[in-house]
Amino acid sequence: MHILGICNGSLRGNSEILLKIALTEAQAQDPTITTSWIHAPSLVMPLNPAPLVGTLDISMGSNKSQMNGTKTSGALDDRRAALNAILDADAIIVSSAIYSHQPPGFLKVLMDRIGGPFLDAGFVTEALEKKAKGDPQFAKFECDQRLLKPRVLGFMMTGGSTTPDQFSMALPSMQVYFSCLHAKVVDQFVGQNCLDAGSVLLNPDLTERAKLLAKNIVSQTGKPYDEAKYLGTSEPGACTYCHLSAIELFRDNRNGVGCVSCGARGQLVVSEDGGILPQWEKDSRWSCLTLKGKIIHGEEIMSWGARERSKIADISSERDQWLGVQIPLVPLPSQMAEGLTNSIATVHL
Ligand SMILES: Cc1cc2nc3c(=O)[nH]c(=O)nc-3n(C[C@H](O)[C@H](O)[C@H](O)COP(=O)(O)O)c2cc1C
Predict the structure, then answer these.
(1) What does the longest C-alpha to C-alpha distance in the chain come to?
(2) Lowest model confidence (mean pLDDT) among 66-70, 121-125, 148-152, 189-193
(3) Angstrom distance (rounded) from CA 95 to CA 91
(4) For residue 346, what pLDDT band results from cuts at 50, 70 and 90?
């Protein structure tokens, strides 16, 4: 079994230290486990690249614009190596700082480039099922088999704030970035009061928490999604899918609520002690964490895309008119070096 660590903070900072504590503990728990790590902010990716060659295309070739990229020399590209590291891993521990209440964007850029629709385990499951049933649309469908292997996840985040209002979107964002993989999140936490690099070591409870997360990861590694258990903490009324407590109010006159993090739906109910808490739906078709939710969402966007495409010809001249409007681009040294000053719209088609 292999555990991949992804550090999404400054080099030699709190995230790196917590990650190394967790990976070391994982090996102490099971010496057969191997580990490796990636520093997300150091990954090199070309400017606005087209998706990697051979990447999953859930539109089955019909959404061409998603495949566009800016023409640049872009010789250095770490995306494939990062993707392979993620797909090879049996478990992933992400250790991240918090910037402006969320994970720093380096990780989001990576997952937007190689994750999301390009790593959609729901679509792959559905496509393989349709292929097996003889659906001609999927007759030639092939995918990287590593996408379907059991995988577990753990999230550790540190913030400088002494109060939780400053990291309300930290774990919710993390849940969404990795939902495409259909890997079970078995533990997650935010450590607050960690401002300066290394300050995580001033808080022994936090380093112990990182070790506990490692133990939890090791105990669930190798188990299929439905068997792996969530071993982290959760507040009363927390979403039963992502175990987080950020809710949106639906104003549907039925006290409906949605989970901000994963999309599950529920209803506010008065409990016996007079308190009001969400009661979450079972077998959610809305949560992006359930296979059912992923598949239904995939089918919906496919059929919506087909309806949209049937009307695109009607607006093509208006579209070209708008795209032809000349507004000066701010001169950027990187784009001038690539000869892109006035032709950023030049794409790989
Ligand atoms: C640009 C920037 C924005 C930050 N925003 C937040 C924030 O919104 N909430 C918070 O709790 N900490 C915030 N912090 C503090 C860091 O999350 C904290 O110092 C963290 O432990 C840094 O991790 P690292 O050492 O791995 O980089 C911010 C730090 C930086 C540099």
Answers:
(1) 68
(2) 66-70
(3) 13
(4) very low
CA 270 to chain centroid: 34
The class of domain 1-233 in CATH terms is alpha beta
Q: How far apart are CA 157 and CA 105, in angstroms?
A: 14
All CATH 3.40.50.360 domain ranges of the chain, comma separated, are 1-233
Closest CA to 56 of 110, 122, 132: 122
CA of 209 to the centre of ligand 1 (A): 19
**Ligand 1 geometric centre to CA of 3 (Å):** 25
Give the three-state DSSP class for 76.
coil
64: pLDDT strictly greater than 80: no
Neighbouring C-beta atoms of residue 34, cutoff 10 Å: 14
What pLDDT is attached to residue 339?
67
Q: What sign does the CA torsion over 144, 148, 152, 157 have?
A: positive
Cα separation of 230 and 66, whole Å? Answer: 35
Neighbours of 117 (CB within 10 A): 18
3-state secondary structure 261-309: CCCCEEEEEECCCCCEEEEECCCCCCCCCCHHHHHHHHHHHHHHHHHHH
Using CA positions, which residue lies closest to atom 29 of ligand 1? 99
**Does residue 326 come out as left (phi exceeding 0), alpha (psi in the -120 to 50 range) or beta?**
beta
Question: From CA 251, how far away is CA 255, in angstroms rounded?
Answer: 7
Q: What are the tens digits of pLDDT across the range 295-321? A: 999 999 889 988 998 999 999 999 999
- From 19, 38, 42, 98, the mutation candidate for ligand 1 (largest count of ligand atoms within 8 A of CB) is 98
Instruction: Please tell me the distance between residue 76's alpha carbon and the centre of ligand 1 in angstroms.
Output: 29
